[in-house]
């Protein structure tokens, strides 16, 4: 799959096109948080406008990371926080 810098892509598309046999990967909460922080750092450092669809574990720390990206004030960035029930929150 050939990508250009202005092309809309998703992680799902990248993973799906990279491998025909997907296996499950189990992550600890601390590893997932570290990966999330690394992605947010990259988006902010490179001023990348992204649409994020997230469903995160409960806890304030997860939402602080989303708020950090939103506060970077990158044009056209959107965050959709997919929570169910009492944990539903609005965009940070």
Mind explaining what this structure looks like?
By secondary structure, the protein is mostly helical. The chain has 3 helices and 2 strands, in the order ααβαβ. The protein has helices at 11-18, 29-45, 60-71; strands at residues 51-54, 78-81. Strands 1-2 form a two-stranded parallel sheet. Helix 2 packs parallel to helix 3 (60-71). The longest helix has 17 residues, at 29-45. The protein is globular. 1% of the residues are buried.
Largest sheet: 2 strands, parallel
User: Mean pLDDT score, rounded?
Assistant: 78
Across the major sheet, the strand order is 1-2
Beta strands, count: 2
What is the global morphology?
A: globular
Structural class: mainly alpha
Distance between the termini: 34 Å
Rg, Å, rounded: 14 Å
Run of helices and strands: HHEHE
Low-confidence stretches: 86-92
Total count of helical runs of at least 4 residues: 3
Strand-residue proportion = 5-15%
Report the helical percentage.
40-55%
């Amino acid at each position: 799959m050939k990508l250009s810098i202005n092309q809309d892509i998703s992680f799902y598309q990248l993973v799906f096109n990279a491998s025909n046999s997907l296996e499950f990967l189990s992550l600890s909460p601390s590893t997932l948080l570290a990966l999330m922080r690394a992605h947010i750092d990259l988006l902010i450092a490179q001023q990348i406008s992204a649409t994020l669809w997230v469903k995160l574990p409960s806890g304030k720390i997860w939402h602080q990371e989303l708020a950090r990206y939103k506060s970077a004030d990158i044009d056209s960035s959107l965050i959709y926080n997919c929570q169910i029930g009492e944990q539903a929150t609005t965009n940070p």
